[in-house]
Write a structure and sequence with these properties.
This protein has 309 residues and is mostly helical. It is 61% helix and 1% strand. A two-stranded antiparallel ribbon has the order 1-2. Helix 7 runs antiparallel to helix 8, helix 9 runs antiparallel to helix 10 and helix 13 packs antiparallel against helix 14.
Length: 309
């Protein structure tokens, strides 16, 4: 998904257990992949992330409010401390059992950990608890280039619920969640993100006409702040971009690992839709050979490889 969701997040360092036995012995893996690998939080300092986490911890110690539970968990997650983040969100839910926002954020981190059933349970609970209106702008943990949040809590709940069902192969349920997400997609970035995953859901279901109709929502005059990689995928599907221009990410691209995961997954899907399963597998393997293991494209490529292999 976009950055968040996508959001995901400055983190580009992972270690597999067999390659780092000392680290494996010292701490539990943050992610057990669908392909049998284990991923760990980076160990090197990051001044900005460390400072933000320290502020969140201090605020929480002063006032264990719902909002401070959320920010402490989010700041831990940006450090790839998913186990600790989920513990914080869980403690917050015990104290604020009607907090749809805490369920939304815990569900996101269950997605990061490939715990799709737990994520679905949390997003379903959040959907039942949250108000349909008014749409609530969600603050960004990592601001975009215009320093303006673009997504809402309602969008994030439906978007991530659709993704969790998609990753499980529950395409009918993914479709229903994304249709609800479309209803609350109120700017070009959100429309692009929702159209992208709903398009892939339709194609996986064989609903080619519905998928092609959906692409009519994407036009060249859209203003894209965050979801450039999704916009490129959609233009590939529309026939406006060649495959190589989407797959081959320049090393100078900002967050090239995230772009590879996101754009590469779309290219793999394009080959799959066009009947070249061998090429799709090759591209998916290139995606999971990258470093951005929290990216939704990376997780989706894992899920597809686990099925296709």
């Amino acid at each position: 998904m976009k950055r968040f969701s996508f959001y995901l997040l400055f983190v580009v360092v992972c270690a597999c257990k067999q390659n780092n036995p000392e680290q494996a012995a010292a701490e539990a893996a943050e992610v057990y992949s669908l392909l049998g690998l284990e991923y760990y939080a980076p160990t090197q300092p990051n001044a900005k992330l460390d400072s933000n986490l320290a502020v969140a911890q201090k605020n929480f110690e002063a006032d264990a409010s719902e909002e401070n539970y959320i920010w402490l968990g989010r700041r831990l997650a940006y450090k790839v401390k998913y186990n600790q983040a989920i513990d914080v969100f869980t403690q917050g839910i015990e104290r604020y059992p009607h907090s749809y926002k805490l369920y939304r954020h815990r569900g996101h981190r269950y997605l990061s950990q490939r715990k799709f059933d737990a994520a679905i349970e949390d997003f379903t609970k959040a959907a039942a608890l949250m108000p349909a209106t008014p749409l609530e702008l969600e603050p960004d943990g990592i601001p975009n280039r215009i320093n303006k949040p673009l997504s809402t809590t309602q969008f994030n709940v439906w978007y991530h619920l659709g993704l969790a069902h998609y990753l499980k192969g529950e395409l009918d349920k993914a479709e229903q969640a994304y249709l609800k997400c479309m209803d609350v997609s109120d700017n070009d970035d959100l429309i692009t993100a929702t159209v992208d995953w709903l398009y892939m859901t339709y194609r996986r279901q064989g609903k080619t006409e519905a998928a092609q109709k959906l692409l009519e929502k994407i036009s060249s005059d859209m203003t894209i702040v965050e979801n450039d990689s999704y916009f490129k995928r959609l233009n590939l599907y529309k026939g406006n971009l060649p495959v190589d221009s989407v797959l081959n990410v320049s090393s100078t691209t900002s967050d090239a690992d995230l772009a590879l995961a996101t754009q590469g997954y779309g290219v793999g899907n394009w080959f799959l839709y066009n009947g070249d399963t061998a090429k799709a597998i090759e591209v998916f393997e290139r995606v999971v050979g990258g470093n951005h293991f929290s990216a939704f494209g990376f997780i989706a490529a894992e899920a597809d490889l686990a099925r296709l292999r």
